[in-house]
Specification:
Layout: H1 3-7, H2 16-56, E1 92-93, E2 100-101, E3 105-108, H3 109-112, E4 114-116, E5 134-137, H4 139-145, E6 149-150, E7 155-157, H5 159-163, E8 175-180, E9 182-189, E10 193-195, E11 199-203, H6 210-227, H7 238-242, E12 245-248, H8 251-291
Parallel strand pairs: 5-10, 6-9
Antiparallel strand pairs: 1-2, 3-12, 4-11, 5-7, 8-9, 8-11
Length: 299
């Protein structure tokens, strides 16, 4: 097709007032979507800031309640410096991760929570893919979505495809981390699913609940990227990932963090789904409005 043909192509054009009313309808949807996106960013930033305040900078509730005068070493546990006298309830002690509050533990990922990998059923076998109902994620799903939660994958596999590959099912509300090429895309699945081999999937538990785990992973992305290796593309293996040191705060503090951040996360999920519905409705309306199938009455 050349430009002359394109310039002479006839298109139906409604009167300007009708165009303006159509634009107004669609703009209303766009504004609702943008408003929801702003709210999501605020909620995510609040939860991330709280995590950093409590578990990175150690300014958690009660951290600043002194039990001894500043400048005295009397009563300091072994390994605690006198300069920490103003924080005797939670003095900092040496650890493999640097100075951490006394009573906090350092363990490996392998000792903290369960992780799993993924696999890809053969693309040559149609019965592994045709009419598949099992969600199967690839890194592109996460990088394209760019959201905290993800409801569905672009590809689905069958029960036979799952059984005859190294893909493994994991429960809903696990945390998927891309581990090769693009390292550090993170999302929470809302339904049982499996992934290809480009993931490390982390399963929360009572001591490492969902939101705490999500923010620990988010905070650790630079570390994961530094630990990656490979000539063709960078990858952090599950074996290496299991050896990463994990800071385990007291259970009551983690539970308090989860109580505060869980409602924020649920609101993020509700807003994400609202955005999906708004986009779907807008995209259904668009061709009908432009074709005149739906008449636009003056406001």
């Amino acid at each position: 097709m050349n430009l002359d043909i394109l310039r002479n192509f006839e298109v139906p054009l409604p009167p300007l007032p009708v165009q303006q009313r159509i634009a107004g309808i669609l703009s209303a949807y766009d504004e609702l979507i943008e408003n929801s996106q702003r709210r999501i960013k605020i909620l995510e930033a609040m939860a991330r800031a709280l995590y950093r305040e409590w578990f990175v900078h150690f300014r958690f509730p009660g951290h600043d309640q002194p039990a001894a005068p500043v400048g005295t070493a009397e009563g300091c546990p072994e390994g605690v410096s006198a300069r920490q006298g103003a924080n005797q309830n939670h003095p900092l002690v040496a650890s493999p991760l640097g100075e951490i509050p006394q009573g906090w533990a350092v363990k490996t990922v392998a000792d903290a929570f369960v992780i799993s990998g993924g696999g890809t059923p053969s693309r040559k076998e149609d019965e592994f893919w045709t009419n598949g109902t099992i969600q199967w994620y690839s890194p592109t799903d996460l990088t394209r979505a760019g959201t905290m939660f993800i409801d569905d994958s672009s590809d689905h596999i069958t029960e036979r495809g799952l059984a005859q590959s190294s893909a493994r099912m994991f429960p809903a509300r696990s945390v998927m981390l891309t581990s090769r090429a693009t390292i550090g895309a993170i999302a929470i699945n809302t339904h049982p699913a499996c992934t290809n081999q480009g993931f490390i999937t982390c399963q929360p538990n009572e001591r490492v609940p969902l939101n705490f785990l999500f923010h620990w992973l988010t905070e650790g992305v630079p570390t994961f990227q530094r630990m990656a290796s490979g000539a063709t593309f960078k990858e952090i293996s599950r074996g290496v990932f299991k050896t990463i040191e994990f800071l385990q705060p007291p259970d009551d503090l983690v539970a308090r963090f989860e109580t505060i951040t869980a409602p924020m996360a649920e609101q993020v999920l509700a807003l994400q789904r609202q955005i999906q519905n708004l986009r779907r409705t807008r995209d259904l309306l668009l061709p009908r409005l432009l074709s005149g199938q739906i008449e636009v009455e003056p406001a």
